[in-house]
Design a protein that fits this description.
68 residues; mainly alpha; 2 helices
Length: 68
Amino acid sequence: MKKNVGTIDKSIRIIIAVAIVGLYLANLISGTLAIILLILAGIFIVTSFISFCPLYYPFGISTREKHN
């Protein structure tokens, strides 16, 4: 598993996840939409911590800085 998520990408994912959880806790989202968004938030958190996004892999996308 080659890391393909960069620092800015991680930060954006975490901010979005926190925003989703905040919307849920403020009861601004509920029902099926809330469940789907909370699952997405969980995926964003996990991919941020492991620095790997499985959707980037088949397309060869990487937001990590290139190191020589």
